Amino acid sequence: MELQNKATALWSNFFNVKMVQIRTFHMTWFAFFSCFFAWFGIAPLMSVVRDELQLTPDQIGWAIIGSVSMTIFARLFIGWLCDRIGPRKSYTWLLLIGSLPVMGIGLSYNFETFLLFRVLIGGIGAAFVITQYHTSVMFAPNVVGQANATSAGWGNLGGGVTQFVMPLLFSVMVVGFGFSEAVGWRLSMVVVGVIIFLTGIAYYFLTQDAPDGNFDDLRAQGKMEEKRNVTGNYMHALKDPRVWVLFVIYGACFGIELTVNNVAALYFMDYFDLTLVTAGFVAASFGLMNLFARTLGGLFGDNFGSLWGLKGRAFWLFMCLFFEGCALMVFSQMHVLFLALPALIVFSLFTQMAEGATYSVVPFINKKALGAVAGVVGAGGNAGAVLAGFLFKNVIDWSQAFFILGIVVTCASFLAFFVRFSTRQEDEERANFAAANIETLRLRALKANAALEEGLQAISRKNGSQPAE
């Protein structure tokens, strides 16, 4: 059954943290930002780790694959868990437990132990599923695309910020506090792990599962399906071919972003002869586009949905993916920095818009198994990153690897035409969309009326008379 009292506006209430929907929105993006930062925190320091642990290119490739492989299984599980115990408890436990390997990677002393912790850290990548789940249950159809895209985009921003913050933090540890390089990168990861742990505690106390309360209370009131139905709904969602089409599509956008986050710093160091810090700043430009690019993907997804319904959302997804693939092929052929950097930014723009467009479609696939759909599609991103990682593991020129990925993404874009909806669902969602817009207009009218009354009262007080009836 449909949850009630979802927020019908995002930006007009952006700073109103008294609204549980807005407070939850801010906590979800910040929690995901922290997780993404920790997930790829070691990537910009890999040149230091490589020298200390004497890692070969093949071993670095396995570390790249390991960092995203664990997340596939974690995302499949976390989607089921959200439907069962709610996003609030799911996020809290993920953050508390996930902080341990983030801090623990400092115990690595050879390739095997480093790989083990790198794989375990990948579990916090499941935070994305909870982020998308939580905003989906908090926001109405007219803004759910942009709410999902913005929370995820600002979370993904952590992958860009970490590219220059971690080298700076490492420099502070080595230069400022006088630690050796071997100790410096380890302490840097401990700092990040502590932040993750504290965020988990804050998430438990500052959010709730749904606009009207937590799942346990809503089930007791008969406003949600029972826990015993969760597994059945999950299995039913797995039989929907649209879920697996979106699985592949998300691998072609988010999977590419994960791969670039892992290899960008090393790519610009080795192919453009940049220093550690400079390469980190250049690599960060890719992730920093999440500040607005993914939001644009969700915003245009909502706009296409208002004009052409659910099929409009799917068509917008195709456009983003197609241009992402083309831009990636162009980037792969740029061999001087002043051409490679703008090509990287354009490629990043379409990649992250494609991610936002994907999750402007996901909430409408199966509302009874939202966690299942969000989890499976999210896992597709990591599956794509694992497959892409093998290109960088093998002895192949990395620019050629990027070109091959561009071809794959361009071909995958046409799968968006297989994401179809029944006429009945199209009509239902048009009605829901219209109702949400009417509610938005009603709330705006109430605010305008309240502001007018306040203005009249202020004028009356200034004139020393009572307001006219």
Spans of at least 5 consecutive residues with low confidence: none
CATH class: Mainly Alpha
Largest sheet: none
Average residue pLDDT: 90
How widely separated are the two ends? 45 Å
The shape, in one word, is globular
Radius of gyration: 23 Å
How many domains would you count in the coordinates? 1
Q: Count every beta strand, where a strand is a DSSP E run of 2 or more residues.
A: 0
Number of helices: 18
Helix content range: over 70%
Computed structural class: mainly alpha
Succession of helices and strands = HHHHHHHHHHHHHHHHHH
CATH superfamily: MFS general substrate transporter like domains
Beta-strand share of residues: under 5%
Helices, strands, pairings?
Elements (H helix, E strand, L loop, with lengths): L19 H20 L6 H8 L3 H29 L1 H18 L6 H11 L5 H12 L5 H33 L4 H26 L8 H6 L9 H9 L2 H11 L2 H19 L3 H13 L4 H40 L4 H22 L11 H24 L4 H15 L10 H41 L6
Describe the structure.
It is a multi-pass membrane protein. This is MFS transporter, NNP family, nitrate/nitrite transporter. It holds the Pfam family MFS_1. One of its GO terms (cellular component) is membrane. It is a single chain. With 469 residues, this protein is mainly α. The protein has a single domain, classed as MFS general substrate transporter like domains (Growth Hormone, Chain: A), CATH 1.20.1250.20. Helix content is 76%, strand content 0%. Helix 14 crosses helix 18. The mean pLDDT is 90.
